[in-house]
Structures are given as C-alpha cells and as structure tokens.
Design goal:
alpha/beta; Nucleotidyltransferase, domain 5; five-stranded mixed sheet; globular
C-alpha cells in the first residue's frame, strides 16, 4: 500500500504516522518510540523509513509537526510570532536523500512578551479551528508543558505555558514525595481539597507540598490521596496563575483524556465549564490543513 501523502506527529518521545489518501482519509497508522530525544539529525530519515518506508512508492510528501522542527531536531523550523494564524508561515523543508521523498515541517509559534514558545500545539490549534470555524475563546492543551491559548478571528492572539506536568514528574520521581504519591489509586476528594487550597492561596504551594509527606507519616490517608493532592496543588496553582485566560471565557481542552478530565473538573469547580476535544483527531485535522494549504500553494 502506498500513501498519497504522510502525516507525522513527531514528539520528544514518540513518532506517530498516518498514511493518507488525497481526500484526507486515513489508510493506515503506526507508532514508534523513535522520538526526537533519541535521534541525531542524521537519524530522522532512517527512523521515518523504518516506520513508513513501505508507504512511499514514487514521489511522496510528508507533513510533520512537533519537536522534529526543534533546534535539536531534523532541521529547525523557525517560530512564527503571535498574533498570527497557526499555519500562517511557510513550511520548512527537511534534508532528505530518499528519491521522491519530501518532508515539510510545520513551524512553531513564539511570543515576545512574556517570552514563550510552542511547537506542535500550533497544529492542534489549526485542527481545532478547521473543525470549529469562527470559534473564539481559550484552548487549554494539558501535558508536560500545558499551554493556555487565546484564539480570536482565526489567530493565536497570546498564550502562556505552565510546567505543571514537568513539576509533577520531577516531584513524584525525584523528591521525598516519591514515597507518598506512587501507584495508580486516586481520591477525588483529596484532589478537590488541594485544588481549592492552591487556587485560594497559591503562595503556600511549597509548604503544602511537604504536607503530603507529613500526612502520610502522621495519619492514614485514603488510597491515592497523596497523588491526587499533588496533582490538585499543581493544577490549582496553575489555574491561579492563568486566571485571566479562563475566567468568563469559552474553553476547550485538547489532550489525553485522563489528564484533560482533571482540567475540566478543576475548571468546573471554579464555575468555568470546558469541553474535552480528542487530541489525535485534532492533530490529524491540523496536519491535513497544512497539507491542503501547501498543496494549494505548491
């Protein structure tokens, strides 16, 4: 089977590819662990061929988004300053040696004040707008580095990044709290209490964090309480810091369902209803929009 074109979501840890027809329907999809973090610039083309070499039969264009376009990636795709359309800049061509293979990378977006960058999320934003034309409001994209994005008139107006996911991983894996937050058990009550505490008094975050450890030593907390408390404190402090983005706004949350559900729950507790959007569908819609834009201008 050959593809008319190939869609690639190339992150730090994983590569996901879709074989696409000219009409934009999916013919096949595959995933590998050949993320940007494991590769040198010379490794990207072999990694793509390992994943999708049998999809390439004659001239084939691949449209890629994500960390593949970072400075440490295949080739750097310069950031587009906001305000701008998420796919408003020219795609960047990566160097290839395979006959007939053309790889084009979607540029990320940047903001000068306060300084911020995104790479990969711009494609999800474009996909969301393609499926929801005329939508104005706030997009929350939870993850290792959660993005809060103001969208209006088809453009990204401003955005802000919170490292809550990174902090959760670092704290739960490399501090004394690792003894208190292990396992997969969960307590909604503990999450809600920590969320409320952090939103109302975010300046107390550092001391409240150690309280997770102390509670485990001095009492018998409910199963999963430590993990849920850590998550509630970090998400609560994040919501407090980005309040102007979500207060009184229309909100859509784009990300993995489990994490997105926590953000929707947290926002709902503040009287800010939000809708969850499937991240894979949105990413593919964005890559399809990028391909159609390029095809129309090629």
């Amino acid at each position: 089977m050959s593809a008319d074109w190939i869609a690639l979501d190339w992150g730090t840890t994983h590569l996901r590819g879709w074989a696409m027809s000219g009409s934009g329907s999916v013919l096949d999809e595959r995933t590998s662990d050949a993320g940007m973090g494991r590769l040198t610039p010379e490794d990207f083309e072999p990694a793509l061929l390992d994943l999708a070499g049998d999809w390439i039969d004659g001239p084939t264009t691949a449209i890629a988004c994500g960390m593949v376009g970072a400075r440490q990636g295949w080739t750097e795709a310069a950031y587009t300053p906001v305000p701008a359309e998420p796919l408003g800049a020219q795609l960047t061509r990566a160097p290839t040696t395979t006959p007939g293979l053309k790889v084009l990378i979607v540029p990320g977006m940047s903001q000068k004040t306060p300084p911020d960058v995104m790479r990969g999320e711009e494609t999800q934003i474009a996909g969301f707008l393609a499926l929801n034309p005329g939508w104005d409001g706030i997009l929350c994209l939870p993850g290792t580095h959660t993005k809060w994005v103001e969208v209006s008139a088809g453009e990204v107006v401003s955005f802000q990044t919170a490292m809550s996911g990174d902090l959760f991983a670092a704290i739960s894996g490399h501090t004394v709290l690792r003894h208190s937050v292990g396992g997969e058990e969960w307590s909604d009550d503990a999450f809600d209490a920590a969320l409320s505490d952090a939103i109302s008094r975010p300046e107390r975050l550092a001391s409240r964090l150690f309280g997770i450890r102390a509670a485990g030593l001095l009492s018998d907390p409910a199963p999963g309480a430590g993990r849920a408390t850590l998550s509630g404190l970090l998400i609560g402090a994040e919501l407090a810091s980005v309040r102007p983005y979500w207060l009184g706004r229309q909100i859509a949350v784009i990300g993995a369902r489990r994490l997105s559900s926590l953000y929707v729950r947290a926002l709902g507790k503040q009287g800010a209803p939000a809708t969850i959007v499937d991240a894979d569908r949105i990413t593919l819609a964005g890559l399809t929009s990028a391909w159609r834009n390029w095809k129309g201008g090629a």
